[in-house]
Design a protein that fits this description.
single chain, 11 strands, about 25% strand, four-stranded mixed sheet
Length: about 260
């Protein structure tokens, strides 16, 4: 069977999929990312949390189709739109256009990155996302910035469902999704192969000696949260045993 977009993704796409009470994932299309000639198909995924107030917290938005918008509006009012790191902002402008009253929170350097893409420029107001607290969702969602030399990625932990939400800190590419041969080899070289996945090797190199202790402390904090599940933006997410997944994915860091 030929490798195609349908085999690279996690259908059904652009639809709310409940994973626990008050929390959904939405699987989106693939994007091609990497150096010229070595671009991997990256399936995309966002997470939606309904807060006690009924408002929705939307993490790393995927494309907003008319049907998805109708599903979202049935579940609540979009209150927060989250750009969790400098390369996860692509569809924020269309979500902001659809939900202009939502507050937009951006991790460091997103505006700088978005300015390089005219059609994706962030021209609307936003709030900074770089502290561990002080947010309207603090009582329901813990916030954890992870600082590297290339980017700060902000992680979230939904307390009620014990769901950890990562973006690129763990990627987990299944061979059947990326294709055979050298593509599978790339996932091995890159440190992002199943069953646990991991921090992509090129991104890991940006956590220099100055940041390595902070990264380890962040991973230890996440393990101490005892997450039941871990949602990631790219690849197969982890439905159970979240703390064990973290220990295995970051064994190189924790030993």
């Amino acid at each position: 069977m030929a490798h195609s977009a349908s085999t690279e993704t996690y259908p059904p796409l652009n639809t709310l999929k409940p994973i626990a009470d008050g929390i959904w994932i939405v699987d989106g299309p693939t994007i091609r990312f990497g150096p010229p000639g070595l671009k991997l198909p990256f399936p995309t995924r966002m997470t939606v949390i309904r807060l006690v107030s009924g408002g929705l917290f939307v993490h790393s938005p995927t494309p907003l189709t008319p049907d998805l918008r109708a599903q979202i509006e049935r579940e609540g009012r979009v209150r927060f739109l989250i750009g969790p790191n400098r390369i996860h902002y692509w569809w924020l402008p269309e979500w902001h256009a659809a939900f202009p009253d939502a507050l937009v929170y951006l991790a460091p350097r997103i505006r700088e990155q978005a300015d390089k893409q005219t059609e994706r420029r962030i021209s609307f107001a936003s709030l900074p996302l770089h502290h561990a607290d002080g947010y309207p969702w603090d009582e329901e969602i813990a916030t954890l910035p992870v600082v590297g030399s290339y980017m700060t990625e902000v992680e979230f932990f939904h307390l009620a469902s014990r769901t950890l939400i990562l973006t690129d800190l763990i990627e987990n590419f299944e061979p059947a999704k990326v294709g055979r041969g050298w593509m599978t080899y790339l996932t091995w070289i890159g440190g992002v192969k199943p069953p646990y996945g991991g921090l992509p090797r090129d991104l890991g190199l940006t956590f220099t000696w100055r940041h390595r202790a902070q990264l380890r402390a962040a991973v230890e904090t996440m393990i101490a949260w005892h997450p039941e599940r871990i949602v990631i933006a790219h690849g197969k997410w982890h439905e159970t045993n979240g703390a064990a997944v973290l220990r295995n994915a970051f064994a190189w860091l924790l030993k």
